[in-house]
Design brief:
The protein is α/β, with parallel strands linked by helices. Helices cover about 40% and strands about 20% of the residues. It contains six helices and five strands. It is globular. The relative contact order is 0.16. The model has no long low-confidence stretch (mean pLDDT about 80).
């Protein structure tokens, strides 16, 4: 966020980011601070997902006219980003260390200044799911 307010771009690589759910959450979070949409315009968001989610995400972005949300299936195709986030995909990667090492050493220019695992988001989703089933657990 500090990058955006200083006038520089912020780029996010969202590993396992489905159809861009974290992008939409972030945009809604900065909306009160971004009356002229200048902050959102500086944001570049890439999602790495399985092919079906990539297809869905691209369709949603196209329908909504979103230009700064992109999707790919291979993390090695990603350029360098300020932030790499993942909410619930890391645990499914058999050789996570090798994958991240490959991304950071990628000759394509991969890498990130920060890595964030969104545990809180996982818990919020679990609670919502439990509420929909008719019971609430913590």
């Amino acid at each position: 966020m500090q990058n955006l307010t200083k006038g520089t771009d912020l780029s996010v690589l969202d590993f396992g980011g489905v159809y861009g759910a974290h992008y939409f959450s972030f945009i809604n979070t900065i909306k009160p601070l971004d009356a002229n949409h200048r902050l959102a315009e500086k944001l570049k968001w890439q999602v790495v997902e399985v092919p079906r989610q990539v297809e869905l995400g691209k369709k949603i972005a196209r329908m909504l006219g979103i230009k700064n949300l992109d999707f790919m299936t291979d993390i090695m195709d990603a350029k360098a980003h300020n932030v790499l986030i993942s909410s619930s995909a890391f645990q499914y990667i058999e050789n996570l260390f090798d994958l991240l090492k490959g991304y950071f050493l990628n000759t394509n220019g991969g890498g990130a200044e920060h890595i964030v695992r969104l545990l809180v988001y996982d818990e919020i989703l679990k609670r919502r799911h439990r509420r929909k089933k008719g019971y609430l657990q913590f």
